Amino acid sequence: MCNLYSNNLPQETMRRLFNVKPANDQLGNAQPLPAIFPKGNAPIITLDGEGSRRLENSHWGFVLPQKSKVTGNPIQPKAVNNARDDKLLTSRFWKTSFETRRCLVPATSFCEAKGKKPATYFWFGLKGDEARPPFVFAGIWRFFKGQYEQEERSLVTSSIITTKPNELVREVHPDRMPVILSPENHDVWLHGSPEDAFSLIAPFPTEQMTIHKHGEGLKSDAG
């Protein structure tokens, strides 16, 4: 499971790294995001109607309507921000988005917590010459329109695919880790068949990852 990550990339850097034309940049005046939580603003890369890459903002978490178990009346919807790989092809909640609406989710690190009161926060990322080498999560997206947070809203929502952890992440979170895509697989994830895309889902190689920092109270990767 991943409930916190960072994207400290400047807007122009995202356009250059992920081959997005300026006209297809829908972020507005975007700022680096050292802490992205569920329900927060999450930049993603999707495809426009002509198959070109588009950079846009999303609400991190598919909106799942809820009803009170007591009254049966609608209550605040959930934001489901992780999609398990073993549910993508069988769950109606995920299947259509995986088959037709895949996206790239730019990031510079992700966080997992270990222990409680106090928890120790571990910020994972890639090895490289830069302090925080950029990468992307495998993501999916869909539209939501309806009552949300006491108002009628229209949202692009996104969720990150998770899979079993590699050896580095397993020491902190023994169950899941987000799927990280190598650059040569970005196009396959966006344009490929569901079968080809699903074949990319695997733990990222341990030897290419590192822990950038860890400690109590580190709920932001501002470094």
Overview of this structure, please?
The mean pLDDT is 94. The protein is mostly beta strands and 223 residues long. The chain has helices spanning 11-17, 95-100, 167-170, 186-191, 194-198; strands at residues 5-7, 33-36, 41-47, 53-60, 62-67, 74-80, 82-84, 102-107, 109-114, 120-126, 135-148, 151-163, 177-178, 180-181, 209-216. It has one domain (5-216): hypothetical protein yedk fold, CATH 3.90.1680. The radius of gyration is 17 Å and the shape is globular. The strands form three sheets. Strands 3, 4, 7, 8, 11, 12, 13 and 14 form an eight-stranded mixed β-sheet that branches. It starts with a strand and ends in a 7-residue tail after the last strand.
The CATH topology is given as hypothetical protein yedk fold
> Quick one: CATH class?
Alpha Beta
Largest sheet: 8 strands, mixed
Portion of residues within helices: 10-25%
Strand percentage, roughly? 35-45%
User: So, the CATH homologous superfamily?
Assistant: SOS response associated peptidase-like
